[in-house]
């Protein structure tokens, strides 16, 4: 274990206080079990999600940058966001503020009118929960701390869109061995393998679940999700591991919708990677919020001796 | 996945005469089918500039039509008519009427950013799709699309409170798009969840619907954002040559 990332600022975001609360709970529990400290940003605001950028991209930069500034003011140089949307937007704000004078100007203007100091690029690093655990603990150390191995549970790792695309806002990715890949990400695979899972070869790791239109264009989303679910099953997966609340609830919701509307039933279970890690670290299924998921996976977990 | 192109010979451009004699020779029937001359005169020469004036459309001029966007597109795999490369082509040529043939599907871009990832010219096709959908609406070519309602309800809540409460967001969205909240699949989802959740958590979730989560001291930020949105709207309308609108406030 390194000192890096042992104590970081925590930006849960709106989804983790709503439909993604199981992700919030399990992330905190895993951090606790691993001896890592999370300090929640004080009085944070929405990052802008997938919607504000369609009203005005610079407004999204402003909203995200406000959170980075809070992290800085609290004395942190790193903020961890488990939600792909938040992570993506903070990264994008960082990129825009360091590359685009227009964005800097708008953010400065809006911050001044709000009575705040504007955030300046380069002061706070944004990391995802995957990077946090991987870099603070490492897979070898994680492996040593596993109390209840995932015992060959077959997992399809699903990363979604916002964790890797577009590439230019993630300058630390695609830097060769040891770094994350944007075309074939593997950080979640690495962590879950260290916890005893068998990762199936899954070609749709970064496919889109249609999360942005999950309610406004449900039929498209259902077809996209059904493709992900049936492919995971065809690859032999018992569980799809997720690392984004929008993807996660999208998969759960459209799994049910595909059954009710299209008559297509799939049985693959959907769990946050933090829930799987938590159970492997000896926490109970309830402690990591398995009962809070829409997807019912308790029978499978019991059969596998987990939770 | 091949790039699907549109047929330029469309049924409505074909002329077939059941009864036709030319200089005394009977030319009725299929063999005399004609294709109407395609002469395009109604170019909108400022179309590219109009799209480029909207947020996200700025880099459309960089496109050199390689087709990587359409080739990588998530929605194109479901619907071959969803063709970003083709729309960018039409916009750059000013072929507004052709573009309008697809006006009801352009909003369906799911923002997966595969196109932006693949684009060798940094056109940011994903943002161009949103700029185009925005343009269609500002020009009054399409009624408000569900995704725009969602963006609007969502952003309105963020601007007003600083945070999102999903239950409230969903209810407002369903009301504005006139959908019933009692969809069978939604009921199945909620039933399953209620049977598993401890009562205290259910109460907390219910409470979040009453006591809306909000960022403290948000008032000045809210005002600054609303003022900015108003300024931007005015700018966009004037770039498209549209009359100024009475200021809308987000609630």
TrEMBL record, chain A:
It comes from the Bacteria. It holds the Pfam family CCG. Keywords: Oxidoreductase. GO terms for molecular function: oxidoreductase activity. InterPro entries: Cys_rich_dom, HdrB/HdrD_reductase. Residues 8-91, 158-251 form the Cysteine-rich domain. This is Disulfide reductase.
